[in-house]
Amino acid sequence: MSDSVGVVATQRAVLTQHGPLVLVSGAELAHVEVAYETYGTLSPARDNAVFVCHALTGDAHAAGWHEGAVRPGWWDNLIGPGKALDTDRFFVVSANLLGGCSGTTGPQSLDPVTGRAHGPDFPALDMADLVAVHRGLLDHLGIDRLHAAVGGSLGGCRCWSGR
């Protein structure tokens, strides 16, 4: 495990302290929480951040090991010391999708207005909404500009959309 980022834990950030997230459709989400993981250290200049975007069925656990897990994160072979996304050089951020089922606000989340899960009333999302939530997370982390954004499948679409 010398080339692993080791044991990691998923973190959460609330992005709507200053008001609701207004979606492309005009719908609003009063409470948006995003689940994410980070690996490596953010440089003092905050210029070494790499955002890793997962595919549709992925999650924020891209590298390392969760306590008691039987397998590492889905891109563990690419993220860590000496690997393609070298955590001795880069601060790597991986976050779940808005509307997903792995810790970021989605249909299973409680609607603070009704006190019940959003369920089928969860609004339709646009690619720009997914990117807006990840941009909000980067703002929360104090990152103004990325060194790079990478991802495959839907993750690659978000990288392109985030220009």
Question: Would you mind describing this structure in some detail?
Answer:
- This protein is α/β, with parallel strands linked by helices and 163 residues long.
- It has helices at residues 127-140, 154-161, and strands at 11-14, 21-22, 28-29, 33-39, 49-53, 91-95, 148-151.
- The strands form 2 sheets. It has a 5-stranded mixed sheet, covered by helices on one side. The chain has a two-stranded antiparallel ribbon with strand order 2-3.
- A hairpin with a 5-residue loop joins β2 and β3 (28-29).
- The mean pLDDT is 90.
Helix content: 10-25%
Number of E strands: 7
Order of helices and strands: EEEEEEHEH
Radius of gyration: 16 Å
- Structural class assignment: alpha/beta
% residues in beta strands: 15-25%
Average residue pLDDT: 90
Spans of at least 5 consecutive residues whose pLDDT stays below 50 are: none
Which word captures the global form?
A: globular
**Main sheet: strand order:** 1-4-6-5-7
How is the biggest beta sheet arranged? Answer: 5 strands, mixed
> In whole angstroms, how far apart are the ends?
35 Å
Number of helices: 2
Give the SSE layout.
Blueprint: E1 11-14, E2 21-22, E3 28-29, E4 33-39, E5 49-53, E6 91-95, H1 127-140, E7 148-151, H2 154-161
Parallel strand pairs: 5-6, 5-7
Antiparallel strand pairs: 1-4, 2-3, 4-6
Helix pairs in contact: 1-2
